[in-house]
Design brief:
By secondary structure, the chain is an alpha/beta fold. 41% of the residues lie in helices and 19% in strands. The protein has helices at 14-25, 47-54, 67-80, 94-102, 116-123, 143-150, 169-176, 188-201, 216-224, 238-251, and strands at residues 7-10, 30-33, 38-40, 61-64, 88-91, 131-137, 154-164, 182-185, 210-213, 231-232.
């Protein structure tokens, strides 16, 4: 594959970047890892999450919309010494389901498409009159909560983390931007945070840079910000994203 020397920016949080980076490197791409997102505790310092963990047996459904939320849930659950999870569990997609299984939790429902709209549609017939706990990022999209409430669910949201823009990435982005061939985006927040980094670093996305999105929601965010993705993964998975980008760059 004639791709050596093609430099691809990975914007995922540091603890996640290796999976996508490894997938890109396996396809002979040069990985430039500059996180556009860092995770910090939620504003309430886990108070809501801890409260709901203590009464987890009162819920019928437990929902996760990211692997990050699963990892925080598993860590805080262990810290509180809560062993049993008796409610059914729904996951937004394959990466989140892998994190759930790694935490020893069974996935009862996963939609075919890893977006909030698909998860909402799959859950709506199942949640009327049911108590539902949604563990997600602070300030996440409200599509899923609105849909579940309209379907008659008794919904509680417990923020597991918040995403922030890491200021230490500014200088790295300023240095690397002129040499990039492509940028990968694995979430809507990575789009917004990278654009904030660009503003702070006084750089712009050159029209020659290939923009690769992990799915339709992330692609839509790019469009709303004035950028057209050239690559979109057919499935929200880092291997699929890496393959799609490698094929596109090879064809140039």
């Amino acid at each position: 594959m004639p791709l050596p020397g093609k430099r691809v920016l990975v914007t995922r949080a540091t603890h996640q970047a290796s999976l996508l980076g490894d997938a890109l490197a396996a396809r002979c791409l040069t990985v430039v890892a500059i996180p556009a997102i860092a995770m910090e505790p939620p504003s309430d310092e886990y108070a809501s999450l801890h409260r709901e963990l203590e009464r987890l047996d009162e819920y019928d459904w437990l929902l996760f919309t990211s692997a990050n939320a699963v990892e925080v849930f598993a860590r805080e659950r262990e810290e509180l010494g809560i062993d049993e999870v008796s409610c059914r569990i729904a996951s937004i997609g394959a990466a989140t389901s892998r994190a759930l299984r790694a935490a020893g939790l069974q996935v009862d429902l996963q939609p075919d498409t890893a977006i909030s709209e698909a998860l909402a549609a799959a859950l709506q017939p199942r949640v009327r009159g049911r108590r539902v706990l949604l563990v997600q990022a602070e300030s996440a999209r409200d599509v899923l909560p609105r849909s579940l409430k309209s379907a008659g669910a008794e919904l509680v949201i417990a923020p597991a983390y918040r995403t922030v823009t890491p200021q230490e990435s500014v200088e790295a982005l300023r240095r690397e931007m002129p040499r990039l061939d492509a940028i990968t985006f694995a979430s809507s927040s990575s789009v917004r945070n990278l654009l904030e980094l660009c503003q702070a670093a006084a750089v712009t996305l050159a029209p020659t840079i290939v923009l690769a999105s992990i799915g339709p929601v992330t692609s839509q965010t790019l469009r709303e910000c004035g950028y057209q993705p050239q690559v979109e993964a057919a499935v929200a998975d880092v291997e699929v994203l890496a393959s799609a980008l490698a094929r596109y760059l090879e064809a140039l």
